[in-house]
Amino acid sequence: MRYKKITVRIIPNDETASALIQDAMGERGFESFVDTDEGFEGYIQETLWDTARTMEGVEPCVEGVEMEWEAEDAPDEDWNATWEAEGFTPIEIDGRVRIRSTNHASDAGMEMEIVISPKMAFGTGHHETTRMITRWLMENEMAGKRVMDMGCGTGILGIVAWKRGAERVDAVDIDEWSVRNTLENAALNGAEINAWQGDARAVEEKRGEYDVFIANINRNILMAGMGLYAGSMRQGGVMVLSGFLEEDVEPLRKCCEAEGMEMVGSDGEGEWRMMVMRRL
After folding, report:
1. Helix locations, the chain, DSSP H
2. 215 phi and psi, to 5 degrees?
């Protein structure tokens, strides 16, 4: 699968503006973002890119901040090699979880170690949303649980759930590269994960199956699929949501409540937020 890379320059560079722009681009099909000194790079499947419409209406929405962007073809590169060339180092989360590439040595002193070969998928543990959900998985009982990782990316969250004792882990992503990468990374970690390509409709037939439903996706996609997500959960099941900002919390909470859930937990890191909902 080929991608377009859109380089966004934010003038002056501003974290809030960057987050708002990325949220708007996520609504238009962008899958991943990489921060730069002047802004960030966004990646979208070539088949979804329409120069005339994809970036229409995308604005910083912060007074005194402007943006510029340019598009180019993204090479089909080996992301693992790119990480190494750019000085990627293993990531540690709360001294309990270590996420490393296949080229790094193991650390036997860590409670859990995840090995990732990224290829064209993203989700390495660098982002606040991934870290928050990883913490939640480490702090809550997973033994015997049936888990769905919606928007799985590299498969990190599903792998953590499996290593924590989940009975079954399913994973879905709209990107075929992510599905392949999830399966590859699961094999690297000795994890048994069922992964397939799809969107929210991928769980339409999974009525009442999941004890834990993980979704690290932007607000609009979460809200659009919430009915199907909620329907796939058993009564008393827990939905862990992230990928959104503070202003998204209230609309998402109301959306979840309309689907028969209640809020039982939350977390935040930087400008990013996480919500934990329970199916009534």
Report:
1. 15-27, 79-85, 128-139, 156-163, 176-188, 219-231, 246-258
2. -145, 110
